[in-house]
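re: ur question from yesterday

yeah so i grabbed the chain u mentioned. its 469 aa long if i counted rite. heres the sequnce exactly as i have it in my notes:
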Amino acid sequence: MAAQSKIKASDLIEPGDDAVELAKRHLVQPWPYAGSVGNEARALIGEGNGIYITDGSGKRLIDGPAGMWCINVGHRREELAKVMYDQAMALSYNTPWYTMNAPSAELARRIADAAPGDLSHTFFTTGGSSAVETALRFMQFYNNVRGRPEKKLILGGAYHGSTYLSASLNGRPRDRDWMDGADELVVKLSSPDPFRRPKEMSIAAFTNFLVDQFRDTVARVGAERIGAFVGEPVQASGGVIVPPDGYLKRIREICRENDILYVSDEVVTGFGRLGHVFASGDVFGIDPDMITFAKGVTSGYFPLGGVIISERLLEDLRRSNHPDALFGHGLTYTSHPIGCAVALKNLDLLEEGVLAHTREIAPYFQARLKTLEELPLVGEVRGIGLMACVECVADRESKDPLQLDKNVGKRIDAHCHELGLLVRPLINMCVMSPPLVISREQVDDMVAILREGISRTMDDLRKEGVWRG
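ran it thru and got these structure tokens back, copy pasting raw so excuse formatting
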């Protein structure tokens, strides 16, 4: 394995131009536009090492978004590569329909030990979307078995995935403008974004407004028809929306009072992003009925996700009058032995120092990024743990996003790419969620590049007459 760790991407793949042409001819990219679908090549990434990636031209970049919130322990960890090899040589796959494997059982135990409340059993999936889909299908099954077939509506409104039910919850218009969904099953809620609250409203009043809206929605729709609430502890793809203090606890209590299952979507926040295995209990003080996870569970080294289910819910099913009712849901790669083996080693790495490092460096990371609010284009820098968002606005007072340049995030990303940093652009926002092993010096480098990228973007916008500043 030591020799293999030195193999370079150029030894394994065709030269960059060949890969670009192959992609244009044969590869359908995720989230494509109709005008370019099946005829598009994006930035080619050849290698990764620690917090860095190398693009097709050989340029080294800080991996600002850690892939997609997932490369938590960093690129090129030989420990994880060795586990993949060893497990593949021992058992590469087993059918989950009538056999099982040891790594999945051990991982389920360790997840139960780390989870809050009575969350005790895990159903493993292939990623975050399938984890949320599984949680929602379990809710439907649970209420059918309990003789409540009408209790199926879902409260939500953030980003929760790309499968049919999970995507139906999405609150971003661009995710649903041209896509169908189970709209009849979903009731959307307001975003708990303090930055976008009315100018005269205090944080406390805004929190009360959100909680009252939730309670009023339950009363209007009818608790007997609502099966679940799905919420991220921190809305990730929504722009790193950190809810007001106490908001999640109050929503949890309303769910408990009305027998509505609380599903905490920790696909992003789980496995270290906020310095803990799970943020629901350790950071926000809630004990959900289910937690969904993915991404950081293997640090992106293998596709794996899951949903952790309350012992109470399983006990309700075991005591029901329908012991032969079948939860007709499963995946070919449920409890994949290689994925679970990688997750076990990844959890070792987290618990042996990465989590502690994250908690130690997070305040420095947030403080350094906060200095970007000195720039006239930046309306707010917000975040928690090692996830943050730089939101650009045309006017700090009105907090209006740049209406004349919806692609400001892409402009900043392009400048930063040239300077040595990959960011995740979201319209007028730049999301940063680097690998958890980032050092203070590397945080300084990241912030310096982002500052210069935003400054260059301001110059561009002024020259084009789009923005005066």
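noticed a couple things. The first strand starts at residue 45 and ends at 49. also The mean pLDDT is 94.
anyway ttyl
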